[in-house]
Amino acid sequence: MATLVTFHAHPDDECINCGGVMRKAADEGHRVVLVVATRGELGEVEDGFLAPGEDLTTRRVAETHAAADILGVSRVEFLGYTDSGMMGEPSNDTPGTFWTASVEEAAARLAKILVDESADVLTIYDDNGGYGHPDHIQVYRVGKRAAELAGTARVYQATANRDDVRKHMSEAAAADGDDSFGPPEEWEIGKPLAELTARVDVSAHVAAKRAAMRAHASQISEESFFLAMPDPVFAEAFGVEWFIREGAGPGITETDIMAGL
Ligand SMILES: [Zn+2]
Q1: What is the Å distance from ligand 1's center to 135 Cα?
Q2: Rounded distance, CA 255 to CA 247, Å?
Q3: Tens of pLDDT along 45-61?
Q4: What's domain 3-161+196-244's architecture?
Q5: How many Å is the maximal CA-CA distance in the chain?
Q6: How far is the CA of 41 from the centre of ligand 1 (A)?
Q7: Would you call 224 helix, strand, or coil by DSSP?
């Protein structure tokens, strides 16, 4: 048995980016630890969703624990920073946000968990945080430094296959005539396939992945992009998880981030 620590910016990022590898590792008998930098304080919620007096942060923490149970997580930790909001928002500079945190100080918090857990594998994000959100970029910087401090050798940057995303977006835009997202060839999502080094087939775990997304009901509604798509489309879009491991490649050289453990 080995230990996977998976590091994320906000509640719900874990199931979107790594839900498959988390459930897969748990099914194989590995220990899975989820660390979330913030409680997603700036998430948007539909009017009337929360009970009178209920605050979003408390709800999102509860949703994270529910999703974690579905994904086979043994331990959930929040690093205690607050959500920075989208890049360029005034909230980026609010004291206490993850974006304003010292990388060294935040990395020390994560490294303590990595050492406590004798982590074998850590997942972070790519250097653009997948899509440029400041808290996601910070997951890359802090995660990379924490692995150095803790001596965690196997670090995988969870990302998306940009070539695939652009292809699917242009097909979807052509099908429904919706070009509000702008030209797909300008989508700065994930990384080009040529830069990816691990492709993990999680098709056996897409049901758990989707159930975990459903547990984040304050953020991912039944009408959302993620849950509205028919099961076969969801399976195609979310049945593979992509990673970059520094020093691996070129090309896809791994199909399992827990291989050999
Ligand atoms: Zn996020």
Answers
A1: 7
A2: 16
A3: 998 999 999 999 999 99
A4: 3-Layer(aba) Sandwich (3.40)
A5: 53
A6: 11
A7: coil
